[in-house]
Amino acid sequence: MMDLETLLHEKTLVREAPTRSDILSGVGKSGPLSVFYGETFDEFGHPIDSLKYYFGVAYITKALLAEGIDANGTILIADTAAQRNAENGSDMLRRGRERFGLVEEVNGVYGTGLEVMRMSDFVGTEAFVQRRQEIIAMCESDDSLMDLVRLSVPESRRAEEEKKGFLYSFDEITTIMDVHVKVGPPREDVYDRIARSIAKFKGLPPLTSVYFTPTFPLGMDWSYFFAHEGIEDHGITAYKAGSKRLQRNRILIGRSSRSHVDALIDQSFMPSDPSLPNPVLDVGVIAQMAKGCIDGSWSMDGLGRKYRTGELRGDALRSYVKDSVAQNIMERFDDAYATRV
Amino acid sequence: MPTPPGFEAAVHEEFERKRALANREEDYYAEKTDAFGLKSLDRFVRYHPDPSALMHKGVSFAHNDLEGVANAMAKGNPWAVISGLNPSGPLHLGHKAVFDELLWMQANGADIYIPITNDESYVVGKSGSLADSRRIAYEQVIPSIIAFGFDAAKTHIYVDSDYPDIYNAAMDVSAKLTLNKAFGVFGFDKKEEGENPGTMFYRAAVQIAQILLPQYAEFGGPKPTLVPVGIDQHPYILLARDVAERKGFIPPAEMTLKFMWGLDGKGKMSASRPNSAVFLTDSADAARKKIKGAYTGGSVLRAHQEIHGGVPQICPVYSLRSYHFEKDTSLKDECETGRILCGPCKTRAIEDVVQYLEEHQRRRDIARGRIDEYLLRTPLRSILE
Question: What is the ipTM, given to two decimal places?
Answer without folding.
Answer: 0.91
